[in-house]
Amino acid sequence: MNKRGRQAEAARNDLRLLRAAHEVFTTQGFDAPVSAIAQRAGVGMGSLYRRYRTKEELLQRLCVIAMERAIEAAAEGLAQDDPWEGFASYVRACVAFGSGALAPVAGTIEVTDEMWRTAREASEVTGRLVARAREAGVLRPDVTDLDVSLLIEQFSRPAPGPRDERHDRVKQRLLAIALDGLRAPGTTPLPGEPPSMEWYEGRWSPRSG
Q1: Burial (CB count within 10 angstroms: exposed 0-12, middle 13-18, buried 19+), residue 15
Q2: Rounded to the nearest 5°, which phi and psi values hold at 112?
Q3: Domains of the chain by range and CATH?
Q4: Is a pLDDT exceeding 80 seen at residue 80?
Q5: What global pTM score does this model have?
Q6: Average pLDDT, stretch 187-200?
Q7: What is the DSSP letter of 42?
Q8: Phi/psi of residue 92, each to 5°?
């Protein structure tokens, strides 16, 4: 096999590993052994460890990918002429690929410079999407960027038990209800203070104990 062929095979193996890791971690928990990931991906443990030396490195990479996909979804939302449809399509897309499914690892892994850079970019483009919807009068004015991110995080949690199409239908139903709740003008005052960026990012600080 020539160099280009080996590189293509390595890229395919990496993609299989990342897909398998996301599925294993979000369905079996973050304590799942990496052997389960290798088995799901159909690659040997040697291939996994050549690409990711530790489980932490694998999780860090998955976090970056999730944020990159959120950036793409926000950019696609901004490209739509209708501010509400652009916003709603972003939320639906993020929920569909489980944008916030890795949130439970916050505070348990080191946050790399790449993760912080990608997070800042995601925050900037999402902020523009939310601001556009708010300025157009279609998003209730008391909803913040972090409210939207945390809502997506809640909908990204996997349902208990094996995958069931009924869970997906229920999730879509509840998401439609939630999106209607985000529409302006909003009738129920939101309780408490809005979440702060300091608190939001602080969740990724190392946990004591």
Answers
A1: exposed
A2: -80, 165
A3: 1-53 (1.10.10), 60-202 (1.10.357.10)
A4: yes
A5: 0.87
A6: 90
A7: T
A8: -60, -45
